[in-house]
């Protein structure tokens, strides 16, 4: 898990407004990007110096390619790992691994040698609730991925948009344009269609179970709460997204270490194949690349390009998920995915038009 965040198998990453979930792991990437965009817009409004856009288009294109490949790869790598029953029962251990990888990555790039961002410490009592929410935000989507098809997992993550909009209104009275509200209706309808035709008796896709649906919905709800809290903690602690994630990832990893003996059934490590260890290492590498590439895209391309990249990742993962399943896909499931993704694109367009 890296510990922004799309799948997630979730990783801690910088939030992406359209990927919705990965990951932490995948999911954590998704949940940090919107905050980075808001920070950049605020700097522009105040006349402060915003992150300098990349002067070399080739460099920006390189990071966009890295981000799309890493985001897509981590979903399928984690799905492959969770298909092994020995690791399906070690979700907390896997999340701990991603959190610590994320912390090591951010700690390295914030050193004086790289200076991607300035480190800032937060008091334990201040950051503890957010770190606990981050743990659930990663573990629940990972459980969803373990008990669902990749297509259902990724499509369900699209619900993060309406859930976050609803929670922001209930908790903070934040509103969105009427056009954006209307765009959220097809999002919910599309996900409902995919859910029904993926789990109904006689469905051609057998990978999604009832538990997968429960974990997916509870994971989206937890991700929505975590996303709303991120904005609140930005103001409360006066920290950037990277500074928050740097503090959360270490504390989250330490919290989960104490839970491992009580909730995980660890595999016999001597019996784990070399191939499986390579997959785990690749998952951690993808988490590192997600953190670095997402920041580079936000700083160099801006919100519109970042949104387009997010939509591209969603479509890519859903399409490859169908190929991965190897089963006949219901036409209604395809229609549901198209309706849900179309609603997200309309929502993004409406919110960006308002800005």
Description:
The structure is a single chain. With 355 residues, the chain is mainly alpha-helical. It has one domain (26-354). The protein is built from 13 helices and no strands. 51% of the residues are buried. Residues 1-28 and 43-55 have low confidence and may be disordered.
Helix content: over 70%
The secondary-structure element order is HHHHHHHHHHHHH
Tally of individual domains: 1
**Strand residue content:** under 5%
What overall geometry do the principal axes of the alpha carbons give? globular
CA radius of gyration:
19 Å
Residue runs with pLDDT of under 50 for 5 or more positions: 1-28, 43-55
Secondary-structure-derived class: mainly alpha
Number of strands: 0
Number of helices: 13
Average pLDDT taken over every residue? 79
Largest sheet: none
Domain Sugar phosphate transporter: 62-348
Keywords: Membrane, Transmembrane, Transmembrane helix
Subcellular location: Endoplasmic reticulum membrane
Membrane topology: Multi-pass membrane protein
What's the structural blueprint in terms of helices and strands?
Elements: H1 26-46, H2 57-82, H3 85-88, H4 91-109, H5 124-146, H6 150-157, H7 160-172, H8 178-199, H9 210-237, H10 241-263, H11 274-301, H12 303-325, H13 331-354
Helix pairs in contact: 1-9, 1-11, 2-11, 2-12, 4-10, 4-11, 5-9, 5-10, 6-12, 7-9, 8-13, 12-13
């Amino acid at each position: 898990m890296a510990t922004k965040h799309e799948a997630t198998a979730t990783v801690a990453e910088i939030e992406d407004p359209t990927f919705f979930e990965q990951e932490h792991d995948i999911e954590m990437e998704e949940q940090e990007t919107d905050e980075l965009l808001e920070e950049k817009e605020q700097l522009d409004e105040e006349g402060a110096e915003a992150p300098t856009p990349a002067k070399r288009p080739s460099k920006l294109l390189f990071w966009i390619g890295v981000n799309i490949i890493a985001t897509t790869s981590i979903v399928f790598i984690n799905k492959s790992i969770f298909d092994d029953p020995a690791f399906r029962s070690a979700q907390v251990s896997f999340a701990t691994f991603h959190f610590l990888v994320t912390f090591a990555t951010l700690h390295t790039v914030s050193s004086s040698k790289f200076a991607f961002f300035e480190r800032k410490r937060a008091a334990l009592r201040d950051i503890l609730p957010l770190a606990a929410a981050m743990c659930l935000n990663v573990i629940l989507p990972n459980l969803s991925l373990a008990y669902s098809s990749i297509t259902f997992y990724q499509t369900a993550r699209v619900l993060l948009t309406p859930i976050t909009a609803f929670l922001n209104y209930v908790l903070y009275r934040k509103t969105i344009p009427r056009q954006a509200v209307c765009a959220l209706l097809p999002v919910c309808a599309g996900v409902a269609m995919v859910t029904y035709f993926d789990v109904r008796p006689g469905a051609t896709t057998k990978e999604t179970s009832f538990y997968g649906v429960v974990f997916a919905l509870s994971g989206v709800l937890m991700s929505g709460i975590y996303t709303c809290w991120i904005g609140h903690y930005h103001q409360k602690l006066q920290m950037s997204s990277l500074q928050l994630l740097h503090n959360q990832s270490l504390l989250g990893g330490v919290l989960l270490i104490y839970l491992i003996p009580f909730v995980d059934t660890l595999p016999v490590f001597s019996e784990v194949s070399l191939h499986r260890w390579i997959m785990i290492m690749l998952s951690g590498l993808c988490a590192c690349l997600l953190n670095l590439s997402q920041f580079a895209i936000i700083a160099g391309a801006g919100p519109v390009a970042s949104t387009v990249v997010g939509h591209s990742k969603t479509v890519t993962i859903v399409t490859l998920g169908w190929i991965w399943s190897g089963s006949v896909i219901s036409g209604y499931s395809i229609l549901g995915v198209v309706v849900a993704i179309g609603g997200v694109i309309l929502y993004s367009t409406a919110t960006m038009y308002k800005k």
